[in-house]
Design a protein that fits this description.
Structural class of chain B: mainly beta
Order of helices and strands of chain B: EEEEEEEEEEE
Shape of chain B: globular
Number of helices of chain A: 0
Structural class of chain A: mainly beta
Distance between the termini of chain B: 36 Å
Helix content of chain A: under 10%
Order of helices and strands of chain A: EEEEEEEEEEE
Radius of gyration of chain B: 13 Å
Oligomer: heterodimer
Distance between the termini of chain A: 38 Å
Radius of gyration of chain A: 14 Å
Shape of chain A: globular
């Protein structure tokens, strides 16, 4: 079983739709959960960062972590064509003083159609 | 502007010809790392550095070397590149946490 599973899509939605992106994981030591956005021909950029379980909201983006189910989600409200990108979930078990290695999902390609 | 820069952005080379991909950050970050991104495999860590002169292997270090002589620079060295090292490479840096900033990537093709 892979450490992090992410449906690669592609996912195509109309502008204004609510988008739900998800990852599951197997390593119960993961404590830090991140979502990165990667535009074509660019490096990943950090969108959201959460520690342990719970929700975090930032504008149109909401990240949810359910450690009991080993399941994380990213919701995008009122999606815009500029949200079209690959979304990568990433996780780490590090608490400090060691390798801040991120274990990534393979990414979900999202297209928001005008 | 705070950024991570990589050079070159694109490189085509032949098997066995040594090459270096440079990475530099201007944010005074202690932590730096190299990843490779391959279709179907995602991003995987090659090497990392917690600080100057401190480096260690990630998940896929075979065929790569790194050095960290200065805080801002973390070059990736392929002493004898092979076709299976054809990939998209990203350098990342962090102040000391998990919020890593990625460079724009280097697309390497080894013939």
């Amino acid at each position: 079983q892979k450490e992090v599973e992410q449906d690669p899509g592609p996912l195509s939605v109309p502008e204004g739709a609510i988008v739900s992106l998800n990852c599951t994981y197997s390593n119960s030591a993961f404590q830090y959960f991140m979502w990165y956005r990667q535009y074509s021909r660019k490096g990943p950029e950090l969108l959201m960062y959460t520690y342990s379980s719970g929700n975090k909201e930032d504008g149109r983006f909401t990240a949810q972590v359910d450690k009991s189910s080993k399941y994380i989600s990213l919701f995008i409200r009122d999606s815009q064509p500029s949200d079209s990108a690959t979304y990568l979930c990433a996780m780490s078990a590090v608490s400090g003083g060691s390798n801040y290695k991120l274990t990534f999902g393979k990414g979900t390609l999202l297209t928001v159609n005008p | 502007e705070a950024q991570v820069t990589q050079n070159p952005r694109y490189l085509i080379t032949v098997t066995g010809k040594k090459l270096t991909v440079t990475c530099s950050q201007n944010m005074n970050h202690e932590y730096m790392s190299w990843y490779r991104q391959d279709p179907g495999l995602g991003l995987r860590q090659i090497y990392y550095s917690m600080n100057v002169e401190v480096t260690d292997k990630g998940d896929v270090p075979e065929g790569y070397k790194v050095s960290r002589k200065e805080k801002r620079n973390f070059p990736l060295i392929l002493e004898s590149p092979s076709p299976n090292q054809t990939s998209l490479y990203f350098c990342a840096s962090s102040l000391g946490g998990l919020e890593q900033f990625f460079g724009p990537g280097t697309r390497l093709t080894v013939l």
